[in-house]
Amino acid sequence: MDTQLLNAAMTQYISANPWILLVIIWALAWKLIALWKAARNNHLTIFIVLAVLNTIGIAEIIYLVYLCIKSKKATPVVSQ
Predict the structure, then answer these.
(1) Where are the domains of the chain?
(2) Which of 42, 53, 68, 76 has an alpha carbon within 20 to 30 A of 6's alpha carbon?
């Protein structure tokens, strides 16, 4: 397929459905935050799953809310 034709079709689709850009930005923001946290916490399996799956931010939000918060609460604080 011709790239100019494809670009014109995408532009026309996005013009007719501007909400799609909001969904893309929403999903990308959550994905980047979750991938950053998974990498910092050495959660390789979760990092790979989140990188491969596209769930419009749902899996990313679940990871951030349940696993990151739960792991922070379970970590004992040692004061000196």
Answers:
(1) 18-74
(2) 53
